[in-house]
Amino acid sequence: MKNTIIGKKAVIGKNVHIGNFTTIDDDVIIGDNTWIGNNVSILNGARIGENCQIHSGAVLAGVPQDLKYNGEYTLLEIGNNTIIREFVTINKGTSLKGKTIIGEKNLIMSNAHIGHDCAIGNNCIIGFSVGMAGEVIVGDWVNISGLTAIHQFSIIGEHSMISGLSRVVKDIPPYITVGREPLSYVGLNLVGLKRRDFSLEKINELQDIYRVLFQEKRNTTFALQFIENSFEKTLERDKIIDFVKSSKRGIIKGFNH
Q1: Among candidates 190, 181, 185, which has minimal Cα distance to 173?
Q2: CA torsion angle 183 123 78 247 (round to 10)
Q3: Residue 91 dihedral angles phi and psi, to the nearest 5°
Q4: Predicted local confidence at residue 235, as pLDDT
Q5: Do you find a cis peptide bond into 182, omega within 30 degrees of 0?
Q6: What is the CA radius of gyration of the chain?
Q7: Same topology between domain 5-153 and domain 198-254
Q8: What is the pLDDT of residue 256?
Q9: Residue 227 scores a pLDDT above 90
Q10: Can you give the pTM of this predicted structure?
Q11: Architecture in CATH of 5-153
Q12: pLDDT single digits (tens) 77-131
């Protein structure tokens, strides 16, 4: 490890590889079997799980890019088996939530930025040069394609997919693919759902629900009432209803709006 600086109080697990010219501050915890490349900066407040990969040029737990941040003690938590590629930047939290959270088994591709107080679920793919503002919430199994920009406070539902070069300014319900400009419902995330072993019956149910919500030109309130009254109560149905009802920014529209 040439010209590598490791804080005396840093807690480094077993079998951790640390590359050349990497800096690890005192208030850092790194789990077993994690691989860290060259020229990486892991700053105070970082908590990194086991079996992670952190590639060259990444900066983790940087100071939030938020003028309200006043030096308060906050964290960045990264779960096990997460891969962080070259030049990714992830800021730690602010006093609002106290931490930025990255779940387990995520792939964050090169040049992506994740802002303060974001919460990313598990098994997500964050594409090349995705820009994610602060306080964004991303569910499990989400795929965000490259060069997508995501507005602060946005919520992205589980099992959804966002096409490349997208501009996300509204919430995205679960299980769907979104694209076009302005960003709109394209259909279900069929590839992702099939890979996750969703049954054909379940996929048909989701298609019918979203047809009511996005393609039949109903007012959202009336569409939700129709879905509640006309579809059997299931876990997925209720997740969709609860997501739409709780959205503060409003959800994206159907492509025919």
Answers
A1: 185
A2: 40
A3: -85, 150
A4: 98
A5: yes
A6: 20
A7: no
A8: 59
A9: yes
A10: 0.97
A11: 3 Solenoid (2.160)
A12: 999 999 999 999 999 999 999 999 999 999 999 999 999 999 999 999 999 999 9
Cα–Cα distance between 236 and 242 in angstroms, integer? Answer: 10
Quickly state the pLDDT bin for 1 (edges 50, 70, 90).
confident
Q: Over the range 35-50, which residues count as b (16 or more CB within 10 Å of their CB) and which as e?
A: ebbbbbbbbbbbbbbb
Catalytic residue among 116, 121, 140, 157: 116
Give me the pLDDT at residue 255, please: 74
Q: Which residue has the tokens 């109560």?
A: 233
Quick one: how far is CA 194 from the chain centroid?
A: 21
Q: Which of 117, 139, 157, 192 is catalytic?
A: 117
Rounded-to-integer distance, Cα 212 and Cα 142, Å: 23
Share of the chain above pLDDT 70, in %: 99
The CATH number of 198-254 is 1.20.1180.10
Residue identified by tokens 């299931």 is 234
Both tokens assigned to 155: 């919520």
pLDDT tens digits, one per residue of 10-60:
999 999 999 999 999 999 999 999 999 999 999 999 999 999 999 999 999
Phi, psi of 172 (to 5 degrees): -115, 110
Active site residue 71: no
What number of CA atoms fall less than 13 Å from residue 144's CA on the CB side?
A: 35
Q: How far apart are CA 172 and CA 162, in angstroms?
A: 9
Indicate which residue of 31, 45, 115, 134 is catalytic.
Answer: 134
Q: How confident is the model at residue 2 (pLDDT cuts 50, 70, 90)?
A: confident
**Is 151 a residue of the active site?**
no
**Domain residue extents for the chain:** 5-153, 198-254
Q: What are residue 116's phi and psi, to 5 degrees?
A: -60, 140
117 given a catalytic annotation: yes
